[in-house]
Amino acid sequence: MTKLSVNLNKIALLRNQRDIGIPDVLQAAKTIIKAGAHGITIHPRPDERHIKYADVYELAEMMTVEFNIEGNPFLGKYMEIVSEVKPDQATLVPDAPGAGTSDHGWNLKADGKKLIPVIKKLKAMGIRVSLFMAADAAGITMAKEVGADRVELYTEPYATVFRTDEGVDEILQQYAYAARAAGDVGLGVNAGHDLNLNNLGKFLAEVPGVLEVSIGHALIADALVMGLYNTVKEYLKVLSKSTK
Questions:
Q1: Catalytic residues, which ones?
Q2: What integer is the mean pLDDT of 108-117?
C-alpha cells in the first residue's frame, strides 16, 4: 500500500494569520498520526510564511511516524535545520525565494553537479534523499546519477488535466513511463502536488510502484468539511483500494 504523508503547511499558514496559536500545528500532527497517516511533511520556507523554523524542532520532538522535510537546500536555513533534526527523508525542491508553491522539478542538467555534495552530506547523516522531478524519464535517470534515493513526481500537470477530463490517459502514460524508468535504475518513487480524493485513485491505479504520496492543500480543505481525523481516514481508504 502506498503510504500517506500529510503536509502541515496550510495548517501553519492559517495559524500565522493571528497571534493566538490556533490552529495548533502540533495537535494537528497528533490527530493526523492517530488517524493512521504514515508520515508528516513540512516545507519550511525562508520567509516562514507557514511552517516556522521553531515548528520543525517541536515536531521532531514528538514524531512517531516518518518525518519528511521539503525545501531548497540552497536557500535559508534548510540545510542547517535538516542537519540538526535529521528527518527520515529530505525532499529537495527547486523553489525560488518568492514562490507561492512548488511549481517545477529540478533541471539536473543545470543543477545536478551542485546537488551532488548536498545529497552526499544528507545521506552520510542517514537521511533518505528524494528529488522533486517532472515526469521525464531522462531527468529521472540523472537523479540516480547524482545520488538520490527517490524521486517525487510533480503531479500538478496531471491534476490540471484531470480537471478538464481531456488527455488523462495520455498524461498518465507519461507518469507511468517515468515511474518505470525510476524503478529500472533503482530509485524509489513518491508523488505529490494537487492530489486529492477525486484524482488520487486513478493516478495510483495507473502509475506503478508509488511508495508515498505527500498531500496537504486538498486534504486540509477536505478537513474543513469532514474533520481532520475523518479526512485522513478517507485518503487512506483510497490508498488501500488503488495502489498498483
A1: 43, 70, 193
A2: 96
**Distances in whole angstroms, Cα of residue 84 to Cα of each of 81, 111, 170:** 5, 25, 43
Strand partners, 212: 3, 190
Task: Look up the pTM and report it.
Answer: 0.95
Using alpha carbons, select from 118, 177, 112, 123 the residue that is nearest to residue 145: 112
Count of the separate structural domains present in the chain: 1
pLDDT of residue 243: 59
- Greatest extent of the chain over all pairs of C-alpha atoms, in Å: 50
Element (H, E) at 180: helix 168-184
Neighbours of 229 (CB within 10 A): 13
Contacts 24+ apart (CB under 8 A), 96-101: 97/46, 97/47, 101/193
Domain extent, residue 236, equals: 3-242
How far is the CA of 32 from the CAs of 16, 17, 147, 212, 232, in angstroms? 20, 22, 32, 16, 7
Distance of CA 179 to the CA centre of its chain: 16
CATH of the domain at 121: 3.20.20.70
Distance CA 231, CA 219 (A): 7
Distance (Å, rounded) from C-alpha 128 to C-alpha 148? 8
Please say if the pLDDT value at position 43 is more than 60.
Answer: yes
CB contact at 8 A, 69 and 89: yes
* C-alpha to C-alpha distance for 147 and 63, rounded to whole angstroms: 27
